[in-house]
Backbone:
């Protein structure tokens, strides 16, 4: 799972709206100016795009980055076998070829995937990119010293669970990755995986020339396969400067527009400072964006009174769900009627207000995010309306032997992260009180909170949780949380409800065999509905993201995959 930073809270957008001030343009679904070719609005090549972020661009090595869809800043340097479609809205949730000629050719049961590289691909030094470079880039991601990337390759590739990377194994490669010629690469999986094209967007699939590999120092100057190369990396990504890669060919890369000549990325800023600078748009900040900093409720209130400023705010929705989690091994949550009672008692209006209001959160009754690509299927098994149904909750409590009410403890983080904040916990406490449920709040420091909720032996009975998408599909959403085979006793466990249902596991396996992603999405949605009947979670809300752009930024694209401005499409005046 991809954990967005507390400031970003973003990944994939369901609906996208971006309005722009005079002198800026958006390629939104309803935008016509950018298509008209008007001299003042059409994007042009040249200039410097500034990126102002709270978090540094740390570990700038394709093996160590946890990104999906090719990432944002990393996507400017690292190309992968496949990538996300760089368009607004639902079209942006599709996977398309990148280094490869197609999204992959599976065998009959989706256990073998074959890719052919495009012709004319080159690294920044002019040498040709080969299938061996892609294979080596993947293999080095298994090295312990380069950990941090998505774990799927270790789980999916035959022999991946035991492989230690080329350094420890003295150059030995993975036999499950074959390169029969310089343009062909074949992957052998230990089980069917119809979503392998999504996985191939991860930066671990970026080619790395073996001769240039410097282990942990490779991040200082990784060899570019994309439109930009690294010319400066200070303080582990605190200041990253990218300039054009002269050997990148736009003919082989229709996805990245690469308008600016230079991209200057700086991290370590306070979020308020970032928004102040973007708002003022003075000097270089007029051509600046952020990829990790949201507007908060107070800032949005100020923006709302300024039409020109409001017109520079982009809106995106992440494939992300904030929810209440139950541990059925802890009383009284072993009784489904208690879990159902809490589901009925929830006041989603107050929870949304605690999360910043309807501009920053949308109420949720399904575990899957409300996007077509995830297989979203509307359901509400325990309809509480906007403000809860305490009468229904009390009736269920009475039936479960708690006619005189119930006392429970709700565990949450003391962090101001709005996903698990004390404010949201308090809103839940107030709602459940109306149903006769007394809630004692247990606030933990963030690290302790994370350790507790992911420890199978120490997991609380009732706590706030959240989950985000590694790619826009129901697979990486439902499997880690509800597949009984993914219950982990001696490590990080995410199946918090300890669901171990053979029928659910069989359906997950059956969907994973499908290479028709549209058909798979429908079945993920049906499975979500089925699991939801067990009341192992109470979906609360899906976050909404509001981001400012500088007044001279053009061609803003926000896709259903990332939910944030795509720097590969942005131009500056």
Residues:
């Amino acid at each position: 799972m991809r954990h967005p930073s507390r400031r970003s809270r973003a990944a994939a957008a369901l609906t996208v709206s971006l309005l722009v001030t005079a002198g800026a343009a958006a390629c939104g679904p309803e935008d016509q100016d950018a298509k008209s070719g008007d001299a003042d609005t059409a994007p042009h090549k040249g200039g410097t795009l500034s990126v102002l972020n709270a978090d540094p661009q740390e570990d700038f090595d394709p093996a160590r980055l946890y990104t999906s869809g090719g990432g944002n800043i990393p996507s400017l340097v690292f190309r992968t076998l496949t990538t996300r479609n760089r368009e607004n809205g639902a079209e942006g949730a599709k996977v398309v070829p990148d280094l490869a000629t197609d999204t992959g050719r599976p065998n009959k049961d989706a256990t073998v995937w074959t890719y052919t590289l495009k012709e004319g691909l080159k690294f920044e030094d002019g040498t040709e990119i080969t299938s061996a470079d892609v294979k080596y880039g993947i293999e080095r991601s298994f090295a312990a010293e380069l950990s941090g990337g998505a774990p799927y390759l270790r789980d999916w590739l035959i022999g991946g669970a035991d492989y230690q990377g080329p350094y420890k194994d003295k150059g030995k490669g993975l036999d499950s990755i074959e390169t029969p010629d310089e343009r062909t690469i074949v992957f052998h999986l230990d089980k069917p995986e119809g979503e392998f094209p999504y996985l191939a967007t991860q930066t671990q699939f970026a080619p790395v020339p073996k001769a240039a590999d410097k282990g942990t120092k490779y991040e200082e100057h990784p060899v570019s396969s994309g439109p930009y190369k690294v010319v400066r990396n200070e303080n582990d990504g605190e200041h990253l400067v990218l300039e054009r890669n002269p050997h990148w060919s736009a003919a082989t890369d229709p996805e990245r527009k690469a308008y600016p000549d230079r991209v200057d990325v700086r991290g370590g800023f306070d979020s308020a400072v970032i928004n102040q600078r973007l708002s003022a748009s003075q000097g270089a900040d007029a051509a600046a964006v952020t990829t990790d900093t949201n507007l908060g409720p107070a800032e949005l209130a100020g923006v709302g009174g300024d039409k020109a400023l409001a017109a520079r705010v982009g809106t995106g929705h992440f494939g992300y769900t904030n929810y209440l989690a139950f541990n059925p091994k802890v009383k009284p949550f072993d009784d489904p009627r208690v879990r159902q009672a809490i589901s009925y008692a929830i006041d989603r209006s107050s929870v949304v207000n605690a999360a910043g209001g309807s501009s920053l959160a949308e109420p949720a009754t399904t575990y899957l995010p409300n996007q077509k690509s995830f297989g979203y299927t509307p359901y509400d098994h325990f309809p509480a309306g906007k403000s809860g149904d305490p009468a229904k909750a009390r009736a269920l409590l009475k039936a479960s032997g708690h006619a005189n009410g119930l006392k429970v403890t709700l565990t949450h983080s003391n962090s101001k992260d709005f996903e698990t904040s004390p404010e949201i916990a308090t809103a839940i406490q107030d709602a459940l009180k109306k149903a006769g449920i007394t809630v004692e709040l247990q606030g933990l420091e963030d690290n302790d909170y994370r350790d507790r909720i992911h420890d199978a032996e120490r997991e609380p009975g009732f706590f706030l949780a959240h989950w985000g998408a590694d790619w826009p599909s129901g697979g990486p959403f439902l499997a880690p949380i509800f597949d009984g085979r993914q219950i982990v006793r001696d490590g990080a466990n995410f199946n918090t409800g300890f669901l171990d249902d053979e029928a659910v596991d069989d359906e997950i396996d059956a969907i994973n065999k499908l290479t028709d992603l549209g058909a798979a999405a429908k079945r993920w949605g049906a499975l979500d509905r089925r699991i939801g009947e067990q009341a192992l979670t109470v979906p609360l809300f899906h976050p909404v993201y509001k981001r400012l752009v500088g007044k001279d930024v053009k061609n803003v694209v926000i896709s259903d995959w990332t939910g944030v401005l795509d720097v590969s499409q942005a131009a500056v005046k």
In short: The CA atoms of residues 124 and 223 lie 6 Å apart. The longest helix spans residues 517-532.
